Amino acid sequence: MALSFRIQTRLTGFGLLSLALVGVVSFAGFLVTTQYPAEISDLVSTATALRNSMEGDMMHDALRADVLSALGAGESANESAKASA
Predict the structure, then answer these.
(1) What's the predicted TM-score (pTM) here?
(2) Which one, of 43, 45, 23, 24, lies nearest residue 35 by Cα?
(3) 5 Cβ contact list (under 8 Å, min separation 6)
(4) What span, in angstroms and rounded, lies between the C-alpha atoms of 1 and 15?
């Protein structure tokens, strides 16, 4: 028992189905666009925290290098190394 539709009815149905799909995609895009500013704010705060963490790690490494340099200069007889440390 196959359904037989005229070509005009089929084209109208496909057109309405396409219009409904475009509406759904448009609505999804609208929802994403309205939530975008809040997500950007979270991204900025996360990037700031990561930058601060990296800077703290670099400062820690620099301080460690200075201490190791001073310890190495203290054990050597090089007076210029001791003066720079």
Answers:
(1) 0.51
(2) 43
(3) 13
(4) 25
